[in-house]
Design goal:
homodimer, about 280 residues
Chain lengths: ~280, ~280
């Protein structure tokens, strides 16, 4: 694949299996207000976290193919499952820089943990991949990392039961093996989980710091753009985001506003298969 | 599309978004032990119940295309969401008889309800389609039908929390508006729900009869085969089922055995997109 130097005023491609990655877009829009973003949510095939590595890789490459047609200058996998399973493949095939959410999350966990005991929660696929353990232990191999999959959290968030008694009970069950290990830091390793921060914090107690990789990822995007000479100078005009979903835009807008923190307008439907 | 008369000893194609339809295969294998079945579970794109009608129709047609290549003599949509949204399209495009699970379930509900007050639970897409109401009221328009989506039931079943306290609480919340309507019959309008029968029955109480369409669907398949002159005579040798999944066969086998009620062997992986 030939490497063409991207244009500095090209958009940045961001994608997720669905609406969760909008928490990353939110941080990006706030940190880099003059950059343009193109966001793709693969709502026709969501969730990814229960699927096999090969299937997740195939879907990620199809979305990346769509983003490349829009001449993006960088691709951000704003999905923990994709970041855990498909970074090598994406970096191999894409002619632009590719960032995920796991390395930024790992760096933030390392900075936060005083007693060097970190918990990680995520989808089945993310936890099984051990991607967070590896990323954290690459930075510091003396850190103990404990992880637990939380498959009911995504459906609970999508059902809107953010403060429901059931959600608290589910959180208590999922977190108990991690709390028994005396973790002092907990990585929210799925972009849906920040919406459960209050209930997770209540269950985990005040001694556990929650790490949401959205802000860290936005910082990593900025420094990579700088390194690549692709960061727009601050004097330029305001950017913004365009949104695409592979299933019904109305549902994407309805669910998505909770993650973005503001109303979503102008979502366009696309077909990703065979791109 | 030209109509070629299918062979009597051709297999019957059965499909679902994932493993849930194996409850229908179980009833079919028991009622029609000498027929051959081909089962497809679209585990790479599961679930369907949260997706839009157009997307569900597209997926159903892709699977039907795969089944036709195996020269099936009939297609059974063993998925409530597909049966609710895609029957017209499937019947229009397929040159063989197509059966769903909703009409058999509606007939069984009608037969069971003494006070003519029927509840229906299912996925968001199934409930929104009003397919059960329409099917029941086509048979008898004096029956009152009340319905409620239960989006957390499928993830709870897949998590294996069949008898968990959380599942009972979720069931109590989902069923309460239906119980307030004094239903005496409750249609389990999703092939995952039969695994929750004990907890649903406990919440609904002994005065509510639960309807699982798997057995009724098997009976409907037999009578349609008879009508079509395609039912194998009982003297012939034993049939059985072949299984295909669009994602990891290992996970399909692991989850699937709970639905089939016995071990699953020889699952083959297929790619459905663009079939």
């Amino acid at each position: 694949m030939k490497t063409v130097r991207p244009e500095i005023d090209a958009p940045i491609g961001v994608f997720d299996s669905g609406v969760g990655g909008l928490t990353v877009i939110r941080s990006l829009l706030s940190l880099l207000p003059n950059e343009k973003f193109i966001y793709v949510g693969d709502t026709a095939r969501v969730p990814y976290g229960t699927k096999s590595p090969e299937t997740v890789r195939r879907y990620a490459l199809e979305i990346a193919g769509f983003l490349l047609k829009s001449q993006v200058k960088m691709v951000v996998a704003a999905c923990n499952t994709v970041s855990a399973l498909a970074m090598d493949k994406l970096r191999l095939f894409l002619p632009v820089s590719v960032l995920g959410v796991i390395e930024p999350g790992a760096r933030a966990a390392l900075a936060a943990s005083k007693h060097r005991r970190v918990g990680v929660i995520g989808t089945e696929a993310t936890v099984r991949s051990r991607a967070y353990q590896q990323a954290i232990n690459r930075l510091d191999d003396s850190i103990k990392v404990f992880s637990s999959p939380c498959p009911l959290f995504v459906p609970l968030v999508e059902e809107g039961w953010l403060g429901h008694a059931v959600t608290k009970q589910v959180a208590a069950q999922y977190l108990s093996p991690l709390l028994a290990k005396k973790i002092d830091t907990l990585v929210l390793g799925c972009t849906h989980y920040p919406l459960l921060k209050p209930v997770i914090q209540r269950v985990a107690g005040p001694g556990v710091e929650l790490i949401d990789s959205a802000d860290e990822t936005a910082k990593a995007v900025r420094s990579r753009l700088e390194q690549d000479g692709l960061l727009l100078p601050p004097s330029r005009k305001r950017g913004g985001a365009e949104f695409f979903s592979s299933d019904d835009p109305a549902k994407f807008m309805f669910l998505g506003q909770k993650f973005l923190g503001s109303a979503l307008r102008g979502v366009e439907r696309i077909q990703l298969e065979g791109v």
